[in-house]
Amino acid sequence: MPNYPSAPRHSGFVPGEPSLPPSRGSLTTQHHRGRPSWCPPPAPQEPGARLYPLHALSVANIPNSSRGKTSARSSTIPTPEGLQSRRCKLLEEDSPMVQAGKRQRQRYVTKVGKCQVNLGNIQDKKRFLSDIFTTIVDLKYRWFLFVFMMCYVITWVVFGFIYFLDAWVRGDIGHQGDPEWEACIENVDGFVSALLLSVESQRTIGYGTRMVTANCAEGVILLIAQSIVGSMIDAMMVGCMFVKISRPKKRAQTLIFSKNCVISRRDEKLCLMFRVGDLRESHMVDAKIRAKLIKSRQTAEGEFIPLEQSELNLGYDTGEDRLFLVEPQIICHVINHHSPFWDMSAESLRREQFEIIIILEGIVEATGMTCQARTSYTEDEILWGYRFEPCMSLEKGAFQVDYSRFEMTFEVQTPAASAKELHELKELEQQEHSTLSLYWDHLLQPCALPGPSEDALVGMSVPSSVAEGIRDEREFPA
């Protein structure tokens, strides 16, 4: 423990010492401990005043928030201190001063393609019943099998009870073994026998001991109704089971993506690249790929937009986004002035916080159903100055794909500057080259071509002696 010569000052002033006006930094440290320095102190709130938020500050955690425990009409307005604290905390997390290793990241989409979004406080849940087929198909297998069994059990029990009630009202149960009694339902002496009659009738088992006779019209109508209801349940349940088993969701497990993205130069352009492959020999038909950038930003008016989605061009204009996915393909996004990575350099990439969502869609060749595979890349999974190693070779008259090299990369010489800076440097070099070429052409043919203008001479790095020589030739021609 350190030995203080006097009691340490936490706040206020010490008697006997001159008090100095606190600086702006000290005020920020005292009143907003743990907040960034640019966060202003919360405005004083008058008694009875209510302040409403002007924009969304963050994405609420629905399972753990108090919003999920209260109704929408009785939601409380957060205090200005709470809003200011949430906003400063969000700015601190998005601040470039925070290192990437210390940030707690929550993926929007996992590496296997699962969306990390929970839906809560859904008021009108009867909309799910209007689309009952999709609701049943989307159930998990344990709940789907439960619904599958309960549909049959409930109909058997309901019609069995109606059979028992009809036999009891007509007196068939009390006249068992009477040859002179004309029974409506034969050999039904209780609820269990009526339940067996219901099962045998709906499943068309027909043992022959229990049956509905022609002595009553209600028995015939009841048997027809059960046959129709049983056929409808069979059609719906078999259809749901077939669709659930044949869903192309499992087909996406054989569509793989590289674990990392790479950034390097291709055809003198800075490109963002990743690799995709198909493990099955049955190929995807009409495969298409697209990419989304998920990043929060704040507008010039102060509106905070959480998880804003922007499109990354993967060759939509030239048709390169349509793939013939027979062997692994390297998908390329050219970083141009339309790209959101136009101003991003290798150094600024470490301070950014975003997520790239990759969506691959295609038709399954075996079933004709549409399949979709997804993955995501964060800024920590982008390698600057790397390329993918080739994984295909020619062996014994056929192309051989080695998937053990699917993830392998190697380092290449890549400038750390952004694509914008490289473009400006290239334009400057082209301008200087064109001006110099014009100068040398004028020296070779002084009468045929006019020399460069004085403004061009000033803008280019031409020696002053050469520039003076050109001016002398203009003033005193030979």
Automatic annotation (TrEMBL):
Source organism, top-level taxon: Eukaryota
Pfam families: IRK, IRK_C
Biased segments, Polar residues type: 62-78
Domain Inward rectifier potassium channel C-terminal intervals: 255-426
GO CC annotations, alphabetized: monoatomic ion channel complex; plasma membrane
Key words, A-Z: Ion channel, Ion transport, Membrane, Potassium, Potassium transport, Transmembrane, Transmembrane helix, Transport, Voltage-gated channel
GO molecular function: inward rectifier potassium channel activity
Region (Disordered): 1-45, 62-83
Membrane disposition: Multi-pass membrane protein
Catalytic activity: K(+)(in) = K(+)(out)
Residue ranges of coiled coil: none
Main location: membrane
InterPro entries named among the record's database cross-references: Ig_E-set (IPR014756), IRK_C (IPR041647), K_chnl_inward-rec_Kir (IPR016449), K_chnl_inward-rec_Kir_cyto (IPR013518), Kir_TM (IPR040445)
GO terms under biological process: potassium ion import across plasma membrane; regulation of monoatomic ion transmembrane transport
Subcellular location: Membrane
Domain Potassium channel inwardly rectifying transmembrane: 109-248
Transmembrane segments: 143-165, 220-243
Protein family: Belongs to the inward rectifier-type potassium channel (TC 1.A.2.1) family. KCNJ9 subfamily.
Oligomeric form and interacting partners: Associates with KCNJ3/GIRK1 to form a G-protein-activated heteromultimer pore-forming unit. Interacts (via PDZ-binding motif) with SNX27 (via PDZ domain); the interaction is required when endocytosed to prevent degradation in lysosomes and promote recycling to the plasma membrane.
Name of the protein this chain belongs to: G protein-activated inward rectifier potassium channel 3
Protein source organism: Cyanistes caeruleus
Name of the coding gene: LOC111939223
